[in-house]
Amino acid sequence: MDPGLGQMPAGERLEADGIAVRFGELRALDGVGLSLAAGQIVGLIGPNGSGKSTMINVLSGFVSPFAGTVTHAGRDVTSDAPDRRARRGIVRTFQAVRLFPRLSVWENIEAAAVAKGAGRRVARAQVGEIVDLLELGEFAQLEAGTTPYGAERRIAIARALALRPHFLLVDEPAAGLDEEETDEMAATLRRLCEATGCGMLVVEHDMRLIANVCDHTIVLSGGTILADGRPQDVMQDELVIEAYLGTRQVDLDAGS
User: Fold this and answer.
1) 29-71: per-residue pLDDT in tens?
2) Hey, CA dihedral for 206, 207, 211, 215, is it positive or negative?
3) Which residues span the domain enclosing 162?
4) Distance of CA 110 to the CA centre of its chain
5) 56 inside domain
6) What is the pLDDT of residues 88-143, one digit of tens each?
7) What are the backbone dihedrals phi and psi of residue 46, each rounded to the nearest 5 degrees, phi first?
8) Which helix (H) or strand (E) is 149 found in, with range?
9) Beta sheet of 90-92, edge-to-edge order
10) What angle do CA 20, 22, 28 make, to 5 degrees?
11) Is residue 49, in this structure, part of any structural domain at all?
12) SS3 60
């Protein structure tokens, strides 16, 4: 697929061990660990204030832990700045989609590819592949500021993909989407992972998406891990139901 997206290195891992973060007297994370393999999709869920956003910020370099380590392919990257991690292949999206509204969707994605160091010819080839993969063809030549909200979420992921991540950290991709759009997003994330081989961490509130896309799920509560396992098992855990799901049950077959 060169000069396109290619396949990410098999066997590569992004790992966190014993992560602890404090904000003043608040202990946002306390001894949290996770392991993400190439080609794997891991969900990170939990109620508001559980530490999800802090964890994705630690992995991407925007927050420094006072204890614990982050390693990528066996190398300690705990002290690396976000831009350095991105160059190594640890890339994230944000809850707030910030596009260049007057540039076309194609130009938004191409700008990310060029920023990664691709020449214009290579960048165009990569963008074409990304547009096809994320099914953005009908929007490619439109100004990004004129696209529907659901498309904006996919464009943000497309820009992250143009940075050729080995590990993609996706922050609430289904935020603001309806049920049909959420199912489409789940299919998009799975297709992206299969096509590129990248590992993916999905931070999300939407149980429908988590149930239908993730291989493994970690539940945070109060800055610690409450449950850790397959989505089908985690979502039937009584502690998870009490702490997060309440009486609402997830139809694990929905959208599959």
Assistant:
1) 999 999 999 999 999 998 888 999 999 999 999 999 999 999 9
2) positive
3) 13-245
4) 20
5) yes
6) 999 999 988 889 999 999 999 999 999 888 788 888 999 999 999 999 999 999 99
7) 155, 160
8) helix 149-161
9) 90-92, 167-171, 199-203, 41-45, 216-221, 224-229
10) 70
11) yes
12) helix
How many Å apart are CA 231 and CA 244, to the nearest integer?
14
Question: Per-residue confidence at 205, pLDDT binned at 50, 70, 90?
Answer: confident
Tell me whether residue 6 is in a domain: no
**Type of residue at 69:** T
Q: What is the CATH number of the domain that holds 180?
A: 3.40.50.300
Q: Specify the 3-state DSSP secondary structure of 198.
A: coil
DSSP SS3 for 43: strand
pTM of the model: 0.89
Give the mean pLDDT of 211-225. 94
Beta bridge partners of 38: none
CA nearest 240: which of 200, 211, 215? 211
pLDDT at 244: 65
CA separation (Å) from 136 to 32, 71, 151, 161, 183? 37, 34, 8, 13, 16
Is 211 within the bounds of a domain?
yes
Q: Among all chains, which residue has been given the structure tokens 């291989």? A: 215
Nearest alpha-carbon partner for 185 in 140, 214, 153: 153
Measure the CA–CA gap between 243 and 222, rounded to whole angstroms: 10
Query: How many whole angstroms separate alpha carbon 254 and alpha carbon 211?
Result: 9
* Mean pLDDT on 143-153: 92
**Structural domains in the chain (count):** 1
Q: How far is it, in rounded angstroms, from Cα 217 to Cα 245? A: 14
Sheet of 26-37, strands arranged across? 26-37, 13-23, 67-72, 75-76
Give the integer Cα–Cα distance in Å for 43 and 23: 24
